[in-house]
Design goal:
- This protein is α/β, with parallel strands linked by helices.
- It has two domains: 1-90 and 187-300 and 489-511, Glycogen Phosphorylase B (Rossmann fold); 303-488, Glycogen Phosphorylase B (Rossmann fold).
- The protein has helices at 32-42, 95-110, 119-129, 131-140, 142-155, 161-184, 197-210, 222-232, 250-269, 278-286, 303-307, 333-346, 362-374, 389-392, 410-417, 430-435, 439-442, 456-468, 470-487, 490-506, and strands at 3-7, 15-22, 48-54, 71-78, 188-193, 214-218, 273-275, 294-296, 320-324, 351-355, 381-383, 398-401, 422-425, 448-451.
- It has an eight-stranded mixed beta sheet, with helices on both faces.
- The protein is globular.
């Protein structure tokens, strides 16, 4: 796994906070990446490092953000670059490492809570001693072979051994690669991961290796979103007899438990554990996070920037519906497309804009284009690609979100501040954003409409109702602007994160 450095530290310079990011900033625009950019640009006194972890190198062709001067270090690592170690003479393997590894695997398999002072800490201690040696042992030692074959006989003997063997190999390869990355990172006073998964594992190892605190912020719950992806993943082997009646396939379940285990390990290592709203916090606790370590910090946006866009809006309500996001299955672009067929039937002048990159999942993007053609709405639903939302928002009448999983969508808040109501699926805290949380918030009114997930007809009906009723649309516009100005300003969010960082940077390690 190779890395490149777009920005390197001066000799003797130390970082305050190193952000470890999976599949987002600075190579992907929007969503979590926008939030990261808010943090690094807003907290100018913090010296940041950025460590990017991605899949295939070709999917991340350029840096999408102008990095501020206080981002002192950037390096990037691509898991698709991981290659098997060259053949080596076998050995007995490190007995203590395999005992720790076996405890970890058992915890992953049975979804037991992982104790940072026990199972995970022991495993990381052994792994950090010499990850290359342990990787070599994993590939070639007698002890490793015995461990793998024993686990196969205990849990998967009805399935082909080769499928099991290579699945286990592919799961472990990133673990060793990330351990080597984590051990080589520049010295920092704290690490901050924006998800569990691979980034969470790297952060947990790095914080242990350097004996400094780890902060975790989860926007969407990683294990939930990863499960959705894994249930649809075409690369996971499915064979007759793989799944028992009424169950998902063995190998899908194995991958799901692997990422649930990584989440448990990240929760065990991190303090604080931050998320965006109470529903997500409850999910984290249910998944094993210590309630005393959890806290909620809502997203915030630049009110001056987006509020200024209201003056650029035309008179009247443009019959334009914009879905602003990546063209990937979790955003459920197909529901938006299907809804647009009904919208253009009811409002002949209406258009649907899909605003976001379509390179992450070309096959899915192709299916969306085929669906548009099959419904006969070419020219009415347009792929605009990556755009500056400041140019888009003044020209649209509704922001539409059809995602099947979100946390606190920034695009809704940005739309509200820019004077654009929404129609959104009932995900994350979207209902709170549209209708309000407490009584005082709810008194501001509805900033649009919330509909069921994957319901194109309800999406279309809500959109047509808002676009056809000028008085209702203007009331929704006013409610959204008032709500975001009252509760979701960027300054409030930055103040909370500055407090989090100051506590982390001033705390002593309690390993």
């Amino acid at each position: 796994m190779k890395s490149f450095e777009a920005r390197s530290l001066s000799k003797g310079e130390q970082l305050d906070v190193t952000l470890i990011l999976e599949g987002t900033y600075p190579f992907v625009s929007g969503g979590v990446s926008s939030w990261v950019h808010q943090i690094v640009t807003g907290l100018k006194d913090i010296r940041f490092g950025v460590v990017f972890i991605g899949g295939a190198r070709e999917s991340y062709d350029q840096v999408r953000y102008a990095l501020p001067d206080n981002v002192r270090h950037l390096e990037s690592h691509f898991l698709a670059d991981v290659r098997p170690m060259p053949p080596a003479r076998g050995g007995s393997g490190d007995a203590a490492f395999y005992r720790a590894s076996a405890e970890m695997h058992e915890a992953f398999r049975t979804a037991l809570p992982i104790s940072y002072s026990g199972t995970f800490e022991t495993f990381v201690d052994k792994l950090c001693e010499d990850p290359e040696r342990h990787e070599r042992d994993f590939h070639y030692s007698d002890r490793s072979w015995k461990e793998v074959t024993a686990r196969y006989r205990a849990s998967a003997s009805r399935l082909p051994f080769t499928d099991y063997f290579w699945t286990v190999r592919s799961m472990h390869a990133p673990v060793f690669a990330l351990a080597k990355v984590a051990r080589s990172l520049p010295i920092a006073r704290a690490f901050h991961v924006i998800s569990t998964g691979y980034a969470g594992l790297a952060g947990a190892i790095a914080s242990k290796a350097q004996r400094v605190p780890l902060v975790l912020t989860e926007h969407g719950i990683y294990t939930k979103e990863r499960r959705i992806e894994l249930m649809q993943a075409p690369w996971i082997t499915e064979r007759a007899g793989d799944a028992r009646s009424g169950e998902i396939g063995f190998f899908r379940e194995l991958w799901i438990k692997f990422f649930e285990g990584l989440a448990s390990a990240t929760y065990a290592a991190a303090n604080p554990i931050v998320t965006l709203f109470e529903g997500n916090r409850a999910r984290q606790i249910a998944d094993g996070a210590d309630p005393a370590r959890t806290m909620v910090i809502p997203n915030g946006i630049d009110l001056a920037r987006f509020g200024a866009l209201r003056a650029l809006r035309p008179d009247g309500v443009p019959p334009v519906l914009a879905l602003i996001g990546r063209v990937v299955p979790i955003k459920d672009i197909k529901t938006f497309v299907r809804a647009m067929r009904s919208v253009v039937h009811a409002l002949p002048g209406a258009e649907g804009w899909i605003v976001g990159p379509a390179v992450e999942d070309p096959r899915y993007a192709g299916e969306c284009r085929e669906l548009i053609a099959s419904l006969g709405i070419e020219g009415r639903v347009k792929f605009l690609g990556l755009q500056n939302v400041d140019d888009i928002l003044p020209r649209v009448g509704l922001v539409v979100l059809t995602s099947i999983s979100e946390a606190m969508p920034l695009v809704l808040l940005e739309g509200f501040a820019a004077g654009v109501p929404c129609v959104t699926s009932d995900v994350g805290c979207a209902r709170d954003l549209v209708y309000g949380r407490a009584a005082e918030d709810r008194a501001l009114g509805a900033a649009g409409a919330v509909v069921g997930i994957a319901d194109p007809e309800a999406t279309a009906q809500a959109a047509v109702s808002l676009l056809s009723d000028g008085a209702r649309w203007r009331a929704a516009q006013a409610a959204g602007a008032a709500r975001v100005e009252a509760y979701y300003g960027q300054d409030r969010m930055l103040t909370r994160y500055e407090q989090v960082y100051r506590r982390a940077l001033g705390s002593a390690w309690r390993g």
